[in-house]
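Suppose a colleague, Dr. K., hands you the sequence of a protein chain of 219 amino acids and asks what its three-dimensional shape might be. Before reaching for any lab equipment, you can write down a predicted structure in token form. Begin with the sequence itself:
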Amino acid sequence: MGRYYGEAAIPDQMRRNFDVYDRIKSLGISLGSFDADVVSLANAGIAAAVIHESGLVYLSGTSGGTLPMNDDEDRIKHGQQGAQEAADVLIRRLHWALSCGGEGDLNDVLYTVKALGMVVTPGGGVTSAGPPVTNGFSFRWHSLFGGGKSDFAQNGVDPGGFAGVHARSAIGGFDGRFSIEPEIIVAVPSALCRDIIRNRGWVFPLPPVMLEKVKAARS
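The predicted structure, expressed as tokens, is then:
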């Protein structure tokens, strides 16, 4: 378990009892590599993640799926798979945002806070595809951190807890050449956020000077 997680103000009955990275391996989620995923912020228009000293980490959205959504069952399944793949991208991003400077990792995540799923449903969003498609994103976080719709849950209860369950909005009506763009906010110990900010700043990817600092510390 993460060293910051152990000091967090969480009831003992709601603490995770598993290593998040064991679930990542079981779910087949790729975490990439430092060289590929920890890059410079130079010329970037937006941040992939912003770390706030209060303990919140804001992750920018990423697209998933290749088809617009409607009420067709196979189309919704395509969107759900794309949403799950988008979750895996943000899980990888969160791993490096927390760990690239050696401060913490995914075991320090306290719980997920709020997700937003923006589903491509051309024609004014006159389908009910938004929530079921976004479930592909939400339930992946259940599987990673715990939740009633987790791959590890039985009868609606995950033995690992409920830290993957979050508040959520799922809306449609957008045009685009993809299925969904989801984003999420997660909570980590404020002490971890402060240590990250002191060491390398609040933004990920890293400003060039901070990237060089982190690389030098690893060598």
